[in-house]
Amino acid sequence: MEVTDGDDWNYRGNLAYDLTKTGVMRLAVAWAEELKTDSRAITSVSVTPGYLCSEEMLAAKGLTIDNWREDRDPNFRASETPRFLGRGIAALAADLHKHRFNGQGLSSWTLMDEYVFLTA
């Protein structure tokens, strides 16, 4: 499992950043192909969080965990913590049928819909 930025192949506005993030997605595809004959049915995916409310983002915006929803940016007010992505990753890891996602790029919101967990 690799964590990246985005679950699509659109250009991300900067060549180095784009190659880094899509490269991670490509690794999931390549590993899925390379490992498909392995008898252990290893699953390879990339996952992306949504707009992230991390410690680094809070510090950059001069906010704290107590007042972050006061930010004027509607995307940031609807952001998620790294823990949210972790819930999706944990649910995927526990799924006995996770191999159906082999080689795919998944998002935290796709995992939330698939495994029915909430932000709270």
What is the averaged pLDDT score?
91
Distance between the termini: 24 Å
If classified by CATH, what would the architecture be? 3-Layer(aba) Sandwich
Strand content: 5-15%
Molecular structure report:
This protein has five helices and three strands. It has 120 residues and is mainly alpha-helical. It has a three-stranded parallel beta sheet with strand order 1-2-3. The mean pLDDT is 91.
Summarize the structure.
This protein is mainly alpha-helical and 120 residues long. It has helices spanning 15-34, 55-61, 74-77, 82-94, 108-115, and strands spanning 2-3, 46-48, 105-107. The protein has one domain: NAD(P)-binding Rossmann-like Domain (Rossmann fold, 3-Layer(aba) Sandwich), CATH 3.40.50.720.
Q: Which key features would you list for this structure?
A:
120 residues, mainly alpha, Rossmann fold
Question: In terms of topology, how is this protein built?
Answer:
Blueprint: E1 2-3, H1 15-34, E2 46-48, H2 55-61, H3 74-77, H4 82-94, E3 105-107, H5 108-115
